[in-house]
Specification:
The chain has about 220 residues and is an alpha+beta fold. Helix content is about 15%, strand content about 35%. It has a single domain, classed as Pseudouridine synthase (2-Layer Sandwich), CATH 3.30.2350. The protein is globular and about 50 Å long.
Length: about 220
Amino acid sequence: MLTVLYEDNHCLAVVKPARLLTMGDETGDTTLVDLARDYLREKYSKPGNVFVGVVHRLDRPVSGVVLFARTSKGAARLSEQFRLGTVEKKYQTLVTGKLEGEQVEWRDWLFKNEQTNTVQCVAEGTPNARESLLRCRRLRQIGSRVLLEVTPITGRSHQIRAQLAARGLPIVGDGKYGSRVPFHEGCIALHATSLAFQHPTRDERMEVNSPLPANWF
């Protein structure tokens, strides 16, 4: 069942549940792209293949807003916005540990180990490391956990997970980055709550929002 947040001739914004792949990999598991394609095929009675342009993605254990393009023109223009960093992405996450300050901004250099598919903060100047900027704001304390709003200024692989873990703030359920606190199986407590972008064919700034999953609390 696909949850549609926004749809027009060029854009389709949906909610990705945790545990679902955005697009295909070697597992051959069903993906969000598959669900989006089936939805469009059925709604518009389109036989055969249906165009669904992937312009960004979320990690498998992460939930939240994913934006697809419905046309090649839309895909090219939206992809360019993500490449240039003009799309504003906001997340909410549950972490353990203590955030120093109500609002912070971190600048790190991240290196991705392709063999382990993990990312770590390294010294500036490390070969193949990429600069990463992240803003965090404390929303509230929930027992031993803290709910944060996170805004990545850059769009690096595993950026939020790695930069939080490097400061002793692992995301709940994220054993890959040091969390020892269980969460729902196959999920981590990271949700993409909003995307703000320029519409690909209209002079209009768009914002699409997705509330936190009910099973978080």
